[in-house]
Here is the input.
Amino acid sequence: METQPETFADTLLGFTVPSRSTRGRLVRLDDVVSDVLAAHDYPAPITHLLGEALVLSALMGGLLKGDGAQMTMQAQTQDGVVRLLVCDFRQGMMRGYADFDREALAELGANPSLSTLFGEGFLAMTFETDSGTGAIERYQGIVPLEGDTLAEACENYFKQSEQIPTLIRVASRSADGQRIAAGILVQHFPDGEEGRERLHVRLDHPDWEHVETIASTITHEELLDAALSMEAIVWRLFHEEAEVRVQHGPRLGKGCRCSATHYESVIAQFPEAERREMQNEDGVIEVDCAFCSRVFALTV
Here is the structure.
């Protein structure tokens, strides 16, 4: 049987520990982060924040199944320095951007906290999956943006909105002008068998306590070590378990879905009078894509 090559960067790795009713995802982003950030001139605190957000999008989006599955993460506030942070994941393709007050950010120093960046904000998770009948099922959960990091805020989301015990660790750093980010997500399987207590409402379940303790030993250095495969990380954590299964996920990449054709179809839905108001003095409607910073000149 052909041996699967080990996984290092820009590919999602899934794993399960059947005896502990545990599933997880691992990812290390290299070119993906660089490609997304290249479209913007973001200062260091925002590149760190967006790198973390892209990792979280891959980890959570990778839990979904189906060709049309998509996960969108949105952190938003009205009184913070970062007004909006958006990332999404669809079939291995990722994109993201941040809207922030550049002058206010410069006054915060090099390592502002999540609460300093967002103030009293909220975190929204939108999951879209294929129902199997061709229709897209959409679910959204919204929770307060709480915690010292985005990873902690996402843990709180799963605890409050999904009631699934979840551990998330994310690391991000810049070396030689290049941003690299990585992370791990571990969850206890939901179990709804009739006549039994549902595991996902028991945060003190002994299997979960064991897995959480083991997974918590992961270090930022291990996550970011480019020479350490993600299979090796899983083995380091769970080598004492009876069985560990890995599933190689999709190759990841930057995937902004903007195009002139798409925007033309959107603009065409507006009444002619409104389209004229959108035109500049040359009769052109300019549409700016926030994700990739491209400007489309339309003559609809």
